[in-house]
Specification:
It is found in: Cell membrane. This protein has 21 helices and no strands. The chain is mainly alpha-helical.
Length: 547
């Protein structure tokens, strides 16, 4: 494929991703399910196709996806629900991989335990993207959102570490449970250490570069690749290093980064996620016809048994595990994910267990992970049952994305498992009030220092602005505290203020454009002033004004 054809292919793929995202936003259909289907359709047409290289997927695709997810996760939230998160993201992943591996070794003709564990590790981690996209629209409580995020983040690292150990055993032709467990522990512990070191270095670098958003973004985009390469170079888990680095950096980012840097970094990573996930789904769907053609060498019964084992374990083990960990005696909860004596972590309710059971959609991580399986072993022979493993993973992803992805929203609404919007708004306004009071205290301290009359005037002006804001927040709090409903009450004054601010911003933009079009304001000046208005508008809520 020539450079021009490759560029045309990429542009066409981006256009498809954008179109599918627009359709998904207007229909509620999961984009993650539509993109592979489109990729399959393209592969059936005459024309050039692109084959996915396992090393490219593992080196260039997984690190940025995992790091971006880690940046947006809550380290404190994961710590508060650590036992449940560990239960789902470590123990359940290990059990899933082991059961599928044993199923392949016992019932699939010619399959090895290592190959079975490899596919089990690939399909073990749920992808939180689809579940959270639907769940947030349905109003999932913050605790369930944190559990989904924490599980989806740590289970990727666990699964990919298991996968690398299983693939190494399969490639070398020798699998020992004791040796594999030892390799897993070494890879996991080493990955955590590397991630912590990389995060520490990034935090040190962030201080002198925080004033330049472009440099800060360059460092941010480079971090996952550095963590991964260092981890792999010293033969520990590079993916776990990426996840740990992302969690720590994301936790300290509010202190280390400037406001402009955070705005830009957040926008850059959202774009990376959007394009990378979309393109990967398309490309992976494009590989399916070739995988299906590779199934010709297997008996139909072998394919059916392999798919049944993979899908059955994925669908049945998760709800069974959640019920088990919530119903066991209290003395066993320390080992299996949720010690009820721990006041910091409440057990899941019945409705929460049902909802969490249905958040097991598999996605881009599973598909990308299975394509990291090498084509040949050390002896030069084809990797055992590679096409069968790929096909099983495809089926699991499609079944969970379509089956669970399309029904998760109605299930959440039927369970009436909604976040308390009123309570969340109250906490946010209490925090806003506390921050303004801290600012007023800082002005009092500044006023006590030696300063001239100009400083006095500036301090008085700022104090008036802060007191006006504090009065508005306290009025909002009073309204929220009086409300008995879970739905955030509407304040006519607040809604009117939002409407007036938006009208004023729109009028300013229109006038600035008129100045630019008449030649009175150069484009460079327009961009500076427009950026100021954009930042002001960004402070307003995303929701439409209720009038």
């Amino acid at each position: 494929m020539s450079v021009e054809h490759l560029l045309a292919f990429v542009l066409a793929a981006v256009a498809v991703v954008v179109l599918v995202r627009w359709i998904a936003n207007h229909t509620g259909l999961p984009a993650a399910a539509m993109l592979p289907v489109i990729g399959v359709g393209y592969a059936l047409l005459p024309g050039p196709n692109i084959s996915l290289d396992p090393d490219v997927v593992l080196t260039f695709v997984l690190p940025p996806l995992l790091y971006s997810a880690a940046l947006d996760s809550s380290l404190l939230g994961i710590r508060r629900n650590l036992r449940t998160v560990v239960s789902l993201s470590v123990v359940l992943v290990l059990l899933t991989a082991l059961l599928i591996g044993l199923g392949f070794a016992w019932f699939v003709t010619g399959a090895t335990l290592a190959a079975g564990i490899a596919v089990g590790a690939a399909v073990a981690p749920p992808d939180p993207v689809a579940a959270l996209a639907v769940g947030r629209k349905a109003g999932l409580p913050p605790r369930i959102v944190t559990l989904i995020q924490g599980e989806g983040l740590l289970n990727d690292a666990t699964a990919l570490t298991i996968l690398s150990v299983a693939v190494a055993a399969a490639v070398g032709g020798d699998f020992s449970a004791t040796s594999a467990l030892g390799q897993f522990v070494i890879a996991a512990v080493g990955g955590v250490v590397v991630g912590m070191v990389v995060a520490y270095v990034v935090r040190i670098l962030s201080r002198p570069i925080s004033g330049d958003p472009l440099i800060a973004n360059a460092v941010s985009l480079s971090t996952p690749f550095c963590a991964y390469l260092i981890g792999e170079e010293i033969h520990v888990s590079g993916v776990l290093a990426v996840v740990v680095a992302g969690l720590i950096v994301g936790h300290h980012r509010p202190r280390a980064a400037s406001g402009a840097g955070r705005l830009q970094t957040s926008a850059v990573w959202r774009l990376v996620d959007f394009l990378l996930e979309g393109l990967v789904f398309l490309l992976i769907g494009q590989q399916l016809p070739a995988v299906v053609r590779g199934l010709a060498k297997y008996d139909t019964s072998t394919i059916v048994i392999a798919v049944s084992i993979t899908v059955g374990v994925v669908l049945l083990l998760r709800p069974l595990w959640l019920v088990l960990t919530q119903s066991l005696p209290r003395s066993l909860h320390t080992w299996l994910g949720n010690d009820r004596s721990d006041k910091g972590e409440e057990p899941l309710t019945g409705r929460e267990v049902v909802a969490m059971s249905w958040t097991g959609t598999r996605g881009v991580i599973s598909l990308a992970a299975i394509f990291t399986i090498p084509l040949v072993t050390e002896s030069g022979e084809p990797f055992p049952d590679r096409d069968l493993l790929l096909f099983c993973t495809f089926v699991v992803v499609l079944v969970t994305l379509v089956g669970q992805g399309l029904t998760f929203g109605p299930l959440v609404r039927a369970l009436k498992l909604r976040a308390d919007d009123n309570d969340q708004a109250r906490v946010r306004n209490e925090a806003r009030s506390a921050s303004v009071e801290a600012a007023l205290g800082a002005l009092d301290d500044l006023e006590a220092e030696e300063h001239d009359d100009i400083h006095t005037q500036v301090i008085d002006t700022m104090r008036k602005q802060l007191r006006t804001r504090l009065t508005r927040y306290r009025g909002r709090l009073a309204l929220l505290r009086k409300s008995d409903s879970d739905v955030t009450p509407v304040s006519p004054m607040y809604e009117a203020a939002l409407h007036v601010r938006r009208v004023a911003i729109d009028a300013q933009r229109t006038e600035l454009l008129r100045w630019r079009d008449s030649g009175q304001l150069p484009d460079e000046g327009l961009r500076v002033l427009e950026h100021e208005l954009d930042l002001e508008e960004r402070l307003l809520p995303d929701r439409p004004v209720r009038r």
